[in-house]
Design brief:
This protein has nine helices and eleven strands. By secondary structure, it is α/β, with parallel strands linked by helices. The strands form three sheets. Strands 5-4-3-6-7-10 form a six-stranded mixed β-sheet, sandwiched between helices. A three-stranded antiparallel β-sheet has the order 1-2-11. Strands 8-9 form a two-stranded antiparallel ribbon.
């Protein structure tokens, strides 16, 4: 609740002072002299005194309610109208076995990638986003949606082993481009995140990139993983978890060509912080042109306070004329 005229509330200290002064003045009565105060021990004020106190309380409540009504209390209800268009984004995430490498200690590549994608999605509330995952094959984990809570749940369910192992970069790009094919957004982008080399020949990556270009889709490619060897976990049924070393091979030249063909950029992320910075750069490069207009409706609450004030004025008048009447 807020007040249209909050300055009126500054009169409350003055009201309290006037009430206190009137109460002291009304308590003055005739003076009787007695030689001993013990005469008055155990003597109560009587019902008339209590009625007079109630009379004063009714007057205070009446003026309090009227002052609140004069300040015009109200409740504001906001409506937001979003104008303009967001961006349609397809995320293509590599879930091949090598994404279990632990060079992003203490987490593996897939965990850091999922967390970073989720933070990126949270920062794009006005954009429709789709999620495609790929290994030896590719499929749509979540179609284009503005419901990012649903997308987040689908992202949580992503894990290595959903698809047979392999790295079908061309298939991942083609599936993501298909998700954007029917989009009427003015800006469409594809973010491809992989840590390997295309080793499935079902769809040529450059052919998929050419299809993206023809549909006006800009591709940003991200190579994930450190140069050289990286620790990799192996779960043995008897010996438990052990670690070995694998070497990261990323076809950076291919990723650069795909991005350059469509007007995008290639990035290399060798740490979790580096991957976060890459997504921050993409977030700045692809800004949504969104204007928000706020409409405020006010629900006026002065009426009930006015009626309450009039009610207590009536009570005060009735008490002053009857039970709390002061005789000369």
């Amino acid at each position: 609740m807020e007040f249209a005229r909050p300055m009126v509330l500054g009169l409350f200290p003055l009201l309290a002072l006037v009430f206190w002064w009137g109460l002291r003045r009304s308590d003055r009565g005739a003076t009787l002299r007695f030689s001993d105060r013990r005469v008055w021990f155990g003597v109560s004020g009587g019902r008339r005194v209590r009625w007079r106190r109630l009379h004063h309380a009714a007057r205070l409540l009446a003026w309090t309610a009227l002052l609140v009504a004069l300040a015009q209390p109200r409740v504001a209800h906001e409506r937001r109208q979003i104008e303009g268009e967001g961006i349609d984004i397809a995320m293509a995430l590599d879930i091949s076995g090598s994404m279990r490498a632990l060079d992003f200690e203490p987490d593996d590549r897939i965990t850091v990638a999922k967390r970073t994608i989720e933070e990126f999605v949270e920062g794009r509330p006005n954009d429709r986003i789709a999620l495609v995952v790929f290994a030896a094959r590719a499929f749509t984990q979540c179609p284009l949606t503005l419901d990012h809570r649903v997308l987040s749940r689908f992202l949580d369910e992503v894990q290595i082993g959903l698809i047979e192992d392999g790295t079908a970069i061309g298939m991942g790009v083609a599936t993501a481009v298909k998700r954007l094919a029917r989009s009427d957004a003015k800006s469409k982008i594809l973010v491809l995140l992989t840590d390997g080399v295309n080793n499935v020949t079902t769809v040529d990556p450059m052919t998929a990139a050419q299809a993206a270009k023809s549909l006006g889709v800009k591709i940003y490619t991200i190579g994930v993983g450190k140069e050289g060897l990286a620790p990799y976990p192996i779960d043995h049924p008897i010996l438990g978890r052990r670690y070995t070393q694998i070497e990261t091979h990323i076809d950076e030249e291919l990723l650069r060509q795909m991005s350059a063909l469509t007007g995008g950029q290639y990035f290399r992320a060798q740490t979790g912080e580096g991957l976060q910075r890459v997504f921050d750069v993409i977030d700045e490069l692809e800004t949504s042109k969104i204007e928000t207009t706020v409409y405020t409706d006010y629900q006026q609450l002065a009426g009930p306070w006015m009626w309450a004030g009039l009610f207590f004025l009536l009570v005060e008048s009735l008490l002053g004329a009857t039970l709390a009447r002061v005789l000369p």
